[in-house]
């Protein structure tokens, strides 16, 4: 007895014939099917491949991008224009404010200058009046016998006219002035005669023919002196005696007392 007689064999038992036949049949069927499929394959139609062309978006996309870029550029331009307009408006407002302030400053300076000039003129006028009245007073008290005797020789209404015009010596000359502190030539003469109830014409032309014409060598206090022709006189005054007259001469001298030789008259009329 061999040593391996009792060791079981490890080989697989052979398959039975029915199972082998079944498997062979199945394999044969599969092969037959493949063969049939292979034979029938070439007769079948080939699959159709269809190419679908997608719409091209490049053109529309470019247009949209261009429109968007143009819109963005326009917005930027609008913003820049608005910024420039705002800056210009701000600059104009600042300039207007500055100009207004400068105008106000100049107006105030002009007003101050005018006030100073007015004050200076008034001071000069007061000084001139004071000087004229001082001169008149000194002349009267220092022996101006001719004037004193002539004034004393004037009586009644003539004396009142002479006293009135002498009281205005030193007042200002103003064209069209009728008092009480500024006169023109005919305004002074008219006001003097009005104190005695005589209503003379307003202008020198008419005053030069308002009375009886008298010779310059036969003057009396209270006579009206005129310069120019009778009826066309350009200046008038009042003879106060002693070879002197009072008249509102011009803006630089005002109302003055002067000898006839200072400005010889053309003629005279007597009203009183």
Offer a quick outline of the entry.
The protein is of the alpha+beta class. It has six helices and eight strands.
Question: How would you characterize this protein structure?
Answer:
The structure is a single chain. The protein has 272 residues and is α+β, with helices and mostly antiparallel strands. It has a domain at 143-270: endopeptidase domain like (from Nostoc punctiforme) (endopeptidase fold (from Nostoc punctiforme)), CATH 3.90.1720. The protein has helices spanning 17-40, 58-141, 145-153, 156-167, 185-194, 204-207; strands at residues 172-173, 182-183, 212-214, 224-227, 235-241, 244-250, 254-259, 267-270. The strands form 2 sheets. It has a 6-stranded antiparallel β-sheet with strand order 3-8-4-5-6-7. A two-stranded parallel ribbon has the order 1-2. Helix 4 packs across helix 5. The longest helix is centred in the middle third of the chain and has 84 residues, at 58-141. The protein is rod-shaped, with a radius of gyration of 67 Å.
């Amino acid at each position: 007895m061999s040593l391996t007689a009792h060791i079981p064999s490890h080989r697989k038992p052979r398959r039975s014939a029915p199972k082998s036949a079944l498997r062979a049949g199945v394999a044969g069927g599969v092969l037959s099917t493949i063969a049939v499929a292979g034979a029938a394959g070439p007769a079948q139609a080939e699959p159709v491949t269809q190419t679908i062309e997608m719409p091209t978006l490049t053109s529309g996309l470019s247009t949209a991008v261009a429109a968007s870029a143009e819109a963005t550029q326009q917005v930027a331009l609008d913003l820049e224009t608005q910024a420039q307009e705002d800056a210009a408006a701000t600059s104009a407002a600042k300039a207007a404010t500055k100009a207004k302030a400068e105008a106000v400053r100049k107006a105030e300076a002009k007003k101050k200058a005018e006030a100073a000039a007015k004050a200076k003129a008034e001071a000069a006028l007061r000084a001139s009046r004071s000087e004229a009245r001082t001169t008149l007073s000194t002349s009267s008290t220092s022996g101006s016998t001719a004037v004193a005797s002539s004034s004393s020789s004037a009586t009644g209404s003539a004396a009142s006219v002479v006293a009135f015009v002498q009281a205005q010596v030193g007042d200002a000359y103003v064209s069209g002035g009728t008092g009480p502190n500024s006169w023109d030539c005919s305004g002074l003469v008219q006001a003097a005669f009005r104190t005695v109830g005589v209503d003379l014409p307003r202008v020198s032309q008419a005053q030069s023919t308002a009375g009886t014409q008298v010779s310059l060598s036969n003057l009396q206090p209270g006579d009206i002196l005129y310069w120019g022709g009778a009826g066309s006189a350009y200046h008038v005054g009042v003879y106060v005696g002693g070879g002197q007259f009072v008249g509102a001469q011009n803006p630089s001298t005002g109302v003055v007392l002067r000898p006839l030789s200072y400005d010889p008259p053309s003629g005279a009329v007597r009203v009183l």
